[in-house]
Amino acid sequence: MKVEFFLGRQPIYDRSMEVRGYELLYRRNTDNSADVIDGSLATTQVVHDAFIEVGLEQLVGPHLAFINMTTELICGDNSLPLSADKVVLEVLEDIPVDDPDILLCLRSLSEQGYTIALDDFVYREAADSLIDIADIIKLDVLSMDRADIAAHVQQLKSRNVRLLAEKVETQEDFKFCHDLGFDYFQGYFLSRPEVLQGQRVPTSRLGLMQLFSLLQDQELDVDKLEVVIHNDVTLSYKLLRYINSAYFSLPRKIESIRQAVIYIGFRALKKWAILMGLLKSSDRPSELLVTAMTRARMCELLGIAQGRKDSDPYFTVGLFSTLEALLEAPLEEILKSLPLSTEIYQALVAQEGDAGKALSCTLAYERGDWDRASLAGLATSDITRSYLDAIAWADEMIAEYND
Questions:
Q1: pLDDT at 316
Q2: 332 and 326 in contact (C-beta within 8 Å)?
Q3: pTM over 0.90, yes/no
């Protein structure tokens, strides 16, 4: 079962009216309203959809992403996977401005290179320590009269921070704030938030539970992690989307789940798993996921039977052959967002190459097209054995899920 997601995006302009960033906003539907109940969950949802479902680079391009942060997310033990050079952390207005623990956490984030913005800021003397940490201060100019706005600008301009006027509703408001010396501008006068809509891929509970269990051990067991992620098409898909996001800026393509696990490392993998866990689905495996598991295993077994030393690409090809049906989108469009090698890409879109021929054989066997269910160097009995072993393996995985 797929779930729709909605994500708001509003541009932030500089004094020359060039886009400098986008605030990413939680949305419940296309009405362009937030209706936030749990701030931390809303931010987690925004991060998940931006990094994994859509792709941060597609959302903001080379610009910064402004993301709201609650106390729980600022000081929680489980930090979100946000790259310091790609995002601005917006400290919400309801966070205690003089809490020593929060100040310590924010100072640590600042020292790590994160840009800190104070959202809907109203000056009071108790906030001086917070101002010292901040890089950007956002003033809600709609909620203040012009005398208050001018007083805030005079008070803050000497504090080595950049000022952002938000909720700029009219041309007169923009001109007034521009003349006062604001650095950035955001609001309906300039651009209303755009609501992006898409389908979120559900994450199975079994895969996440197994992943969490393995991640409790400080020693990263790559073999076991590879197996767990391999066995779940959505985890595999989301991991490759995540590792291909702007957070990593990969210098090369990742061809297998094993490479992804090794590349990402323990700490980053744990962050990713936590993000998945916060948004986990309780859905039971669908027949489509069973098909994906069977295809993946059969392709892998065919590669092994042919004497291939590396059967990982075969497994990946079989696993991802169901993405078009799973996401209800053209396969080539989906694959553009994944860091796949030319070999795997061609295998999926054209069933070319060794892995592509194994997939073609697997699909033919599924359909009962015995004339096409063949593969060079393999007897019919080898192919039949691979199919039956793949079904048994998939059944075993489902039985483990249902226990």
A1: 79
A2: no
A3: no
d(Cα 134, Cα 383) in Å, to the nearest integer?
A: 63
Neighbours of 241 (CB within 10 A): 19
What does the pLDDT look like over 275-292, one tens digit per residue?
A: 565 444 434 445 676 787
Q: What percent of the chain has pLDDT over 90?
A: 32
Q: Are strands 64-69 and 194-200 parallel, antiparallel or unpaired?
A: unpaired
CA distance 375 to 356: 11
Q: What is the mean pLDDT of residues 126-155?
A: 94
- Report the alpha-carbon distance of residue 41 to residue 49 in Å, rounded: 12
Give the Cα-Cα-Cα angle 103, 104, 106 (nearest 5 degrees): 65
C-beta atoms surrounding 367 within 10 Å: 9
14: how many CB neighbours lie within 10 A of its CB? 15
Chain position carrying tokens 């039971």: 284
Burial level of 294, CB count in 10 A (0-12/13-18/19+)? buried
Residues 6+ apart with CB under 8 A from 252: none
- Which tokens sit at 355? 């892995």
What confidence score (pLDDT) does residue 136 get?
Answer: 97
What residue spans of 160-202 are helical by DSSP H?
Answer: 171-180
- Segments making up each domain of the chain, as ranges: 3-198, 202-278, 287-402
Backbone conformation region of residue 160, classed left if phi is above 0, alpha if psi is from -120 to 50, else beta: left
**Sequence-ordered alpha helix ranges (H) in 220-279:** 222-230, 233-243, 257-278
Instruction: Give the sign of the dihedral formed by CA 382, CA 384, CA 390, CA 396.
Output: negative
Q: What is the pLDDT of residues 375-396, one digit of tens each?
A: 998 999 999 999 999 988 877 7
Q: Is the dihedral of CA 314, 318, 324, 327 positive or negative?
A: negative
Report d(CA 190, CA 187) in Å as an integer: 6
Contact yes or no for 294/396 (Cβ under 8 A): no
Residue type, 267: R
CA distance 36 to 331: 34
> Which tens digit of pLDDT belongs to each residue from 153-176?
999 988 989 999 999 999 999 999
The fold of 3-198 is TIM Barrel (3.20.20)
| Cα–Cα distance, 357 to 343 (Å, whole number) | 11
